[in-house]
Structure formats: C-alpha cells, structure tokens
Amino acid sequence: MRRDAAVAPVIAAMLVLAVIVTFFAVWNATAIPAMKEQAEVSHLHEVESGILRFSSDIESAASTPNNMKLSERIPLGGGDVLFSSTKSGGTLAIQDEDENRPYMVMEIYNRTDSGPDFTNRASFRLVNYSYRPSGNFWLDQGYVWSYGYVNVTKGTPDATPLETPLEFSTMSAVKYTLTGALFSASSSHNPADPCNCSVVILKGVSIKRVNSDRSMSGNGIGTLALNSTLIPTSISDVTRINMTISSPQPAFQNTLRESVNSSLNQNVLIPCRNIHLDTTPSTDSSILLTIDPGPTNVTVSRKITEILLSAH
Predict the structure, then answer these.
(1) 8 A C-beta contact, residue 310 and residue 249
(2) Which residues contact 70 (CB under 8 A, 6 or more apart)?
(3) Dihedral (C-alpha) 243, 249, 254, 259: value to the nearest 10 degrees?
(4) Looking at the chain, which terminus has fewer C-beta neighbours within 10 angstroms, N or C?
C-alpha cells in the first residue's frame, strides 16, 4: 500500500504533464498557424493599401505640373504573433516596362533647322513596380502596378505568377485611367490673327526608375518613392508634329491614342485653323499634325514631367 501511495502522485504528475504537452502540441499545430495566417492577412492588406496609395501618388504627380516628392511605406514581412515572432519577407522591385521601349515618341520639326531631317525628339517611357512575397504564412500573394492599374499575383518570386486585376472583374474591364494624365494639349491664339494659333502646349509624362534604388528585400519596412520634375522646352517656327504611340498592350495603346486624339482635337485642331491632321500616316500608331506656313509662326512649348521611381 505504501508503494502504491508513493507511485500515485508520480503517475498523476505524469498525466498532468502529458495533458500539458498535448495542449501545447495542439496549440502549436492549430492555434498558432491560424493566428499567423490571420496576421499575414492583415499584413497583405497593409501592402495592398500602400500599393494603391502609391498608384494614386503617380497619377497625382503625372497630373500636376509642379515638382513634387511623394513616398509610401510598405511592410515587407508579416505573420509575427505574440507566441511566434518569426516573420515572412518580401521584395519591392521597379522594372522597365516593354524592355525599355517608349510608349510614345514626340517629334517636332521646324523650318529654321540646318538639315531637312532634323527633329526635336522626346521619348516617353513607363515602368512597373511590384511586391513579391517570400515565406508567406498564408498565400504567396503579391501585387504588380502596370500601365496604371494593379494586378494581384499568386506565386513565388522564382516562378511565373498568375495575375488578375485587383479592382476589376476581368482584364477586359480594366480602365486605363492613367492615360488621361500621360498627355494633354492646349493652344493660344495669335492676337493679331484670331483664327490662327501661335502657341501650342504639349505635355507628356515619362516614368523611369532610379537604377541605384530599384529593389528592396527583407522583412522590415520598405519605401516606394517618386520624384517628379518638370522639363520645359520651347521650339519656334514649327512646321509639323509627329507622335507615335506603341505598346504590346493593345488595350492600353488604343485608350492612350483615343485620349491623345481627343485632347488634340478639342484644344488644338478645332480652335486653330492653321493646324491640321495629316491622314497620310499608314499605321494607326502615328498622329501627324501639319502647320500652314506664315504669316503666323507657331511655337511649341513642350513640357515633360519626368517621374523617377525608387525602392529602398
């Protein structure tokens, strides 16, 4: 009896210990992963909000003629909870769109140049920026901003991810609203000749990356930043203006062309009788304006907003 009485507390302690171990095993197997997944959902929601805010920042910089600097902080990692502080990671990256091919080229010719083939040429480019997850505790969900809208991606950085629009039901429903900010035109009449225009203002936006700060990896806080600068140029005695719009994204190209045509028609072609649309270009990507010779000379004020993006 004494031996049984001495063994009973040991057995009871072992049973209690077994219950505690089982409880923590179940806790680690179910509760903690569920909490980490929930924390990861919250983290990705913060990433999504930051990506969308930066998209709005780009549109604001493209629409505003003033120099400006804007930035958004993006949490690269998440999923840390009280009982498990291990965090996932991620990468912010900025890449050239279309292998560094310009989406629009603006060529301005005038009669005072020494050679017949001289052109004042300006190329306008686009980039995309993305967040890619690493070691995510929920889904390998990332985000890519491209052509002015955001795609949700699924897949690891070393694999080609699946993509779907974040704010639209299908790709065919995507609205390329950025095109309205990428180009605009206006004109001023000659006071001595009200039917003709003496000044044409052409505004374009070129979005590029800062090569030294084009990616950021880790599980801390990353920053997407932009720095926009207005670069004005005046070209006198202009005889013709040629604009070429190209993109491997047909919907974006068509929307941009419609936006450029609308701005030129409303603000240049209709009010200015000395400026005409030349229908001879053989491709849909070219828009050619010709200007009547004298007595009103036309000066083109070209204003390029250069937006530099960086990730650090």
Answers:
(1) no
(2) 54, 57, 60, 61, 225, 226
(3) -70
(4) N
- The low-confidence residues of the chain, meaning pLDDT below 70, are 1-8, 10-13, 15-16, 18-31, 99, 113-118, 156-159, 281-284
What is the spatial distance between Cα 217 and Cα 281, in angstroms, rounded to a whole number?
Answer: 47
Q: How do strand 104-110 and strand 120-124 relate by DSSP bridges?
A: antiparallel
Q: Is 130 helix (H, G, I), strand (E, B) or coil?
A: strand
Tokens 């080609």 belong to: 160
Question: Contact, 132 vs 44, CB < 8 A?
Answer: no
**How confident is the model over 241-278, as pLDDT tens digits?**
999 999 889 999 999 999 999 999 999 999 999 999 98
Has this prediction a pTM greater than 0.85?
Answer: yes
What is the rounded distance in angstroms from the CA atom of residue 72 to the CA atom of residue 33? 30
Q: CA-to-CA distance for 201 and 269, rounded, in angstroms?
A: 13
pLDDT one-digit tens code per residue, 43-79: 999 999 999 999 999 999 999 988 999 999 999 999 8
